[in-house]
Amino acid sequence: MLAHVGTRQIETDRLILRKFKYSDSEDMLNYWVSDPEIQSMYSEPVYTTKQDVKMNCWIKYISVSMKNDNYYRMGYTIKGNR
Predict the structure, then answer these.
(1) How much of the chain is in helix, strand and coil states, percent to nearest 5?
(2) What SUPFAM superfamilies does the record tag this protein with (predicted)?
(3) Residue 4 domain flag
(4) 73 lies in some domain
């Protein structure tokens, strides 16, 4: 049986895979949460504004989900672009 450990930071020579941060809201909007095709794959609503992402997607969903050990969606940082 799989023992879930939750989202853990993983670092490589070029990348840092990490938990999402509140400050990722604008990038989330630009790259996927405003895309109906992507959001339909997750059975999640489409978000259209930064405020919508911050209030609904982030506060109501992601921040709660990250507390669960079986949540594995991750943000990333390219080293040198911090």
Answers:
(1) 40, 10, 45
(2) Acyl-CoA N-acyltransferases (Nat) (SSF55729)
(3) no
(4) yes
Q: For the CA atoms of the chain, what is the radius of gyration? A: 14
Residue 23 lies in a domain: yes
Domain containing residue 22: 10-78
Q: For residue 2, is it within any domain?
A: no
Digit-coded pLDDT (tens) for 16-34: 999 888 888 899 899 989 9
Contacts of 6 (CB under 8 A, 6+ apart): 66, 68, 69, 70, 71, 72
pLDDT in tens, 28-67: 899 989 999 999 998 889 999 988 888 877 767 777 777 8
- DSSP lists the bridge partners of residue 78 as 15
- Number of folded domains that form the chain: 1
